[in-house]
Specification:
single chain, alpha+beta, six-stranded antiparallel β-sheet, six-stranded mixed β-sheet, 15 helices, 24 strands, 35% helix, 26% strand
């Protein structure tokens, strides 16, 4: 059974989703930091680059957002181009977009409605779209994309047909929607109510756009706690617990409007101990920041991410199944496949992923592992992913939809000492560099007499105990007296050279 835990402080709100007491999803909302995901802006086109089919749009943030041709909806593209008679009705959106020139769609200084689909990361601005989506409890409305879809997790043909027919009858012309998994078996009136609410919201956004100033935010999604309850609360959830009474009132109001029969699952927690400590959430978050993940069998995963991809290595460790080596490897790989899906979701890892499973000689076992991984991704992961078959080297290449920052990006900064490399120079290496820099500085400035060299405590100890003779030789070469000083406030790489 699942639990939704909501911890609210004056500085931050945190939401944890547990599945059988294990952390499945974690969300953060820092109150003094603006959340841009899914927000609508009245943007101003600041630059159009036809060479890369991208328009840069000022949305009032530090960096302009970027809008690629693939994120421009068909109706807008057709409307903005004067000579589009050659665009045939039977062409797909992809074919149309590949034949369009973004320079003919947008002009610099033009004001357009855009939605953020990916927050700024590193040096990149926010990724924008004009293919708008408005998420509700049972469906996602696409107000300018006339497409109907039903979650793949709804397997019953009869139910899929019922939901499609319901949408076709009630959707306004020109709009589309995707029915979510929790729409399955819901009464028609509940889905219609959700649809009407989202259509009304879209109408409000359009009105605000006309009145808003350029670069102004005109709509944002629900706060993180309400968003998590909207997206996760269903019959599988045992309880929703909040340690803030005002937050619980807002959640109760939301639940009563969409799924009143689930309002009895809401609980207030006053402690002690603190809510997240009671359910061991902080310890689980700390473990999710580590490279190494221990498997129950004794095996392990090593998860490392770079700018281009994430690499996951599977190791057997001390696990022995009592059978053949091939059986041991298969059992470890199957356990690893399940844990990998859990970690990808918890750590919010997307993009290109390469998994190095333990090599298996048996082709049937490799096929079984591929099927299990695909099935687990389909059942346990909410984001779209594509996994290729295991290669002859035991590697699986897969992609997973990106959604915002990873857990590591949200909670950590690059190490100032190693600059993200994962290691720092040794004390001998630093000491030798300091001596070289000292020599260069004395020669460049033609220093004579006594010259002070202040270094960190560790470098000082190393030079005194291991390089004393080298310093004496350096003094003879330079014709000066080197006065070595220890500054305990210095980092290992810090040093200063001063004429005395």
């Amino acid at each position: 059974m699942k639990k939704i835990l909501i911890n609210k402080d004056t500085w931050q709100t945190r939401v944890a989703v547990l599945n059988n007491e294990r952390l499945q999803d974690i969300y953060f909302d820092t109150h003094n930091k603006e959340d841009l995901d899914r927000c609508f802006f009245k943007g101003r086109v600041s630059r159009v680059l036809p060479g890369i089919q991208t328009a840069f749009v000022d949305i009032g943030q530090q960096k302009a957002g970027f809008l690629h041709i693939s994120e421009v909806d068909r109706a807008l593209a057709s409307e903005k181009i004067a000579d589009y008679d050659d665009i045939r009705e039977e062409m797909t959106d992809r074919e149309i977009k590949s034949s369009l020139d973004i320079g003919k769609i947008f002009t610099e200084g033009e004001e357009i409605l855009v939605q953020v689909i990916k927050e700024p990361i590193h040096e990149k601005g926010a990724k924008l779209t004009t293919c708008f989506t408005l998420p509700g409890k049972f469906l996602v409305l696409m107000p300018n994309i006339p497409h109907l879809g039903v979650s793949k997790k709804i397997e019953s043909r009869e139910e899929r047909a019922r939901l499609r027919e319901l949408l076709q009858k009630n959707l306004p012309k020109g709009m589309g929607a995707i029915l979510r998994t929790n729409a399955e078996e819901r009464p028609s009136k509940d889905i219609q109510k959700d649809l009407a609410f989202l259509v009304s919201m879209w109408s409000s956004i359009q009105k605000k756009f006309k009145k808003a100033k350029a670069c102004e935010k005109i709509h944002e999604d629900l706060p993180v706690s309400l968003r998590a309850v909207r997206d996760h609360l269903d019959e599988d959830v045992e309880v929703v617990i909040s340690d803030d009474q005002e937050e619980l009132k807002a959640i109760h109001k939301l639940v009563k409007s969409f799924t009143p029969e689930l309002s009895n699952k809401l609980r207030y927690y006053s402690g002690p101990p603190p809510l997240f400590e009671r359910f061991n959430i902080d310890d689980q978050i700390e473990k999710a920041l580590q490279k190494k993940v221990q498997l129950k069998s004794g095996g392990s995963l090593i998860i490392e991410s770079t700018e281009a991809m994430t690499v996951i290595d599977v190791n057997t460790g001390k696990f022995t199944s009592g059978g053949s080596m091939e059986d041991t490897i298969l059992k470890t790989n199957l356990e690893a496949a399940d844990e990998i899906v859990t970690q990808l979701r918890l750590r919010n890892i997307g993009g290109l992923i390469v998994i190095d499973f333990i090599d298996m000689a048996n082709a049937a076992n490799r096929s079984k592992l591929s099927r299990v991984l695909e099935k687990t991704l389909r059942e346990k992961d909410k984001y779209q992913s594509v996994a290729l078959k295991i290669s002859e080297f035991g590697l699986v290449q897969m992609t997973r939809k990106r959604s915002g920052k990873t857990l590591v990006q949200q909670l950590t900064n690059v190490c100032s000492s190693c600059c993200g490399m994962g290691f720092v120079k040794s004390i001998p290496s630093i000491s030798f560099q300091v001596l070289r820099d000292f020599k260069t500085e004395v020669q460049r400035k033609s220093l004579t007499g006594s010259v002070a060299l202040a270094v960190s405590n560790k470098v000082f100890e190393y030079l005194i105990h291991h390089e004393y003779q080298a310093i004496l030789q350096l003094e003879r070469q330079l014709g000066c007296k080197a006065i070595l000083e220890c500054n305990e406030k210095y980092e290992d790489t810090q040093f200063t050279i001063n004429k005395m």
